[in-house]
Amino acid sequence: MLFDILTIFPEFFVSPLNVSILRRGREKGAFDVRTWDIRDFAQDKHKTTDDRPYGGGEGMVMKVEPIYHCLKHVTPLGPSPFVVLLSPRGRLLDQSLCEELAQKKRLILICGRYEGVDERVSEHLVDLELSIGDYVLSGGEPAALVVMDAVMRLLPGVLGCAESPENESFSTGILEYPQYTRPREFLGWKVPEVLLSGDHKKIAKWRRKEALRTTLIRRPDLLEKIELSEQDMNLLDE
Ligand code: ADE
């Protein structure tokens, strides 16, 4: 998969792309990332990428022309892209949308600034306006990193088998069960006995119950979206 990031802050991506799984995934050839400076496509000698809003008001608005020219330059440089504008006004990202995006050969991620982007970008140049949550970031750059991280880890060959995403929260539709590792006891805080029992059936049942219980307490909205088995209902009643 190919990610092209259109931004006025390409520096933002240098370190994150060179650590951890983003680096590993790139080195394995599962995906590649290119960053493009929208400023390089500004049409005037001052390289202006934003301007005051028509109709008045606070803040600046990102101009349509530099984004248009940047896209026009970048689009032919690879397979046909799916173009995403990061913005707090967009469709909310969730795991199923990440899975859809992971099917694309190529994503172009346009990072807007928080005051706004000329609406003609959204109307004419993008396939999807996307928000990573109901809060306002100072720009689309951290959101682009979130999208890349969540999408690329679903690509074949990025995670090892042991890290497979299939059993994770949101892939299963509910939150994950709690995890523990050594020591068995720390400051008197004990690991649940059942996990030390070696009884795999009992452990699986306990994990399912804890996952359901945690989801019921923390995110009851998730339980409304899935169908619980009779066994699950019994576990919740226990
Ligand atoms: N830009 C500013 N806030 C954002 C958000 N919540 N999601 C995506 N892009 C943004």
UniProtKB/TrEMBL annotation:
Positions contributing to S-adenosyl-L-methionine binding: 112, 132-137
Transmembrane regions: none
Primary location: cytoplasm
Gene3D superfamilies: 3.40.1280.10, tRNA(m1g37)methyltransferase, domain 2
One GO MF term: tRNA (guanine(37)-N1)-methyltransferase activity
One GO term (biological process): tRNA N1-guanine methylation
Cell compartments where the protein resides: Cytoplasm
Keyword flag Methyltransferase: yes
Keyword vocabulary terms for this entry: Cytoplasm, Methyltransferase, S-adenosyl-L-methionine, Transferase, tRNA processing
EC nos: 2.1.1.228
InterPro entries according to UniProt: Alpha/beta_knot_MTases (IPR029028), tRNA_m1G_MeTrfase_C_sf (IPR023148), tRNA_m1G_MeTrfase_TrmD (IPR002649), tRNA_m1G_MTases_N (IPR029026), tRNA_MeTrfase_TRMD/TRM10 (IPR016009)
Keyword Transferase: yes
A GO cellular-component term linked to this record: cytosol
Record-annotated tRNA methyltransferase TRMD/TRM10-type domain positions: 1-225
Pfam families: tRNA_m1G_MT
Catalytic reaction equation(s): guanosine(37) in tRNA + S-adenosyl-L-methionine = N(1)-methylguanosine(37) in tRNA + S-adenosyl-L-homocysteine + H(+)
Task of the protein: Specifically methylates guanosine-37 in various tRNAs.
Subunit record text: Homodimer.
Similarity comment: Belongs to the RNA methyltransferase TrmD family.
Record-given protein name: tRNA (guanine-N(1)-)-methyltransferase
Organism (species): Dissulfuribacter thermophilus
The encoding gene: trmD
